TrEMBL record:
Residues 35-146 form the YbaK/aminoacyl-tRNA synthetase-associated domain. The lineage of its organism: Bacteria, Pseudomonadati, Pseudomonadota, Alphaproteobacteria, Hyphomicrobiales. Belongs to the prolyl-tRNA editing family. YbaK/EbsC subfamily. It is an enzyme of class 4 (lyase). This is Cys-tRNA(Pro)/Cys-tRNA(Cys) deacylase. It comes from Afipia massiliensis.
Amino acid sequence: MSKVTRATKMLEQAGVAFTVHTYDYDGDADRIGLQAAEALGEEPSRVLKSLMSLVDGKPVCVIVPSDREVSMKKLAAAFGGKSAQMMKPADAERLSGYKVGGISPFGQMRAPRAAIEEMAMAHDLVFINGGQRGLQVRLDPRDAARVLSAIVAPLVA
């Protein structure tokens, strides 16, 4: 497994301090984010999942703790939209340039607007997918928000 991805290159170019962590990815896990947290020995609230969604038909990347579910109503409101829905996996892969289970908000082919759950900001460091299945980057959530020009808002149900 390469530890250099478009995501890690983007973070390096932005001057963000981060560390790379690998784990045994289980594609059969019911909840991939929770499996990552368990494999890393971390609290699920510190391991964030990156989900590709649509708000009023426009793509967005939403980043929430792996043990929480996105509220579509809150997601739409965060972007000033009327409705939100999850993106189909094939569309998420095509837009992001990453495989499902390895989608990072960093270094996407056509970077959509992003939002991060405000609860994540309570942590000094969080884990976010590094652009490959089984690869996470650990960084300050404020750095993630800054690099992505992300909206920080309540997003979970």
